[in-house]
Every structure is written in structure tokens, then in C-alpha cells.
Amino acid sequence: MKKQRRDQARPRGAAKERALGLLAVRWRSRAELDRRLRRAGFDPEEVGSAIEDLESAGLVDDARFARELVADRADRRLAGDRAVRYALRAKGVAEDVAAQAMEAAGDEAERALALARKRAGRLGPSEPEAGYRRLYGLLLRRGFGPSVAREACRQALREALPEAEEPD
Questions:
Q1: Which of 9, 28, 87, 153 has its CA 20 to 30 A from that of 121?
Q2: Over the stretch 3-48, which tens digit does the pLDDT of each residue have?
Q3: What percent of the chain has pLDDT over 70?
Q4: How is the chain split into domains, by residue range?
Q5: Residues with Cβ < 8 Å from 1, sequence gap 6 or more?
């Protein structure tokens, strides 16, 4: 007898049960749930029905999910707008919902400066140029734009190392 491949086998349980299990771990967007359930092998009609039931019960809400993600990435992790928007897009949040949630992110330059100040204090008495490169790279990796990162680095290094010359 031939073994069925994993992706062809019928998954155990119902799509709604699996979705509830996924939601027990963390909030998820509608598109993210749809993608995960289909990948698990559930029938698209069953997936759609399960997600609609969960939406009507208030357990799936893309606007709330987007607000929570923005709060986590922008406030707690101090990420830049580009990184937050990318995360929303990757989770399948619609552009209009993402734009509305991004309004709560606050000023990107303030977040960049807060992160640069936090990390500049850890640099120690290293060369200002090396510290600048490290801070600048960190801010770029966190999704801040080059001009925002540059200004935040300069300001944070001026405060942390007042006696050093400002790097170019």
C-alpha cells in the first residue's frame, strides 16, 4: 500500500479548532489564518467558513491585529516605519487598515533618537566614527530611513560623547 504524502492527507480535526489553537498563541490576521489552514490541508470552503465564524465572534479582527502589531513593533521594539509596514504587509493586512494603524505609531524620528540614545550609552569610549557606523547600521536594520538614522545617530553621539568630534 502506498503512503500518502503529508500535504495530501486530510488533517485531523476541524479548521475552526486548528484556528482557535493558532489564536491561543497570539493574535493573527485573516490572511495569516487562511494561509496557515490551507497549508495544513484544510478545504478552502471549510477555512473560509471557520474564519468567518471566528470573525463574527470577534476573535479575528484585522484592525485590532494591526494596532497590536504596530504597538509592539513601534513602541516596544522601537522599529522604523518601513519595518512596521513590511511586517503588516507580510501578515496580509490590507493597505487601508495598515495605514490607519500606522497613525498610532508616533513620530519616527523620536523613536530613532530613543533607540540611538539607548544604544549610544553602551558604546563606551570607542572611536566616534566606529560608534556612528554601529548605531547607523542598527537603525537601518530596524527599518529607519537613512536621513532619520543619520540625524538620530549624530544627536545621540553628541549627547553620549560630548568631547568627541562629530563624524561625517
A1: 87
A2: 444 445 667 778 999 999 999 999 999 999 999 999 999 999 999 9
A3: 89
A4: 15-56, 62-105, 108-160
A5: none
- CATH 1.10.10 holds for 15-56: yes
Please give the Cα distance from 97 to 29 (Å, whole number): 11
Pair 82, 145: CB distance under 8 Å: yes
Q: How high does pLDDT run on average in the chain?
A: 88
User: Using CA atoms, how far apart are residues 157 and 146, in angstroms rounded to an integer?
Assistant: 16
Least Cα distance to 98 among 79, 84, 77, 118 occurs for: 84
CB 159 within 8 Å of CB 120: yes
Burial zone of 49 (CB within 10 Å; 0-12 exposed, 13-18 middle, 19+ buried): middle
DSSP line for the chain: -PPPPTTTSPPSS-HHHHHHHHHHHS---HHHHHHHHHHTT--HHHHHHHHHHHHHTTS--HHHHHHHHHIIIIIIS---HHHHHHHHHHTT--HHHHHHHHGGG--HHHHHHHHHHHHHTTS-S--HHHHHHHHHHHHHHTT--HHHHHHHHHHHHHHH-TTSPPP-
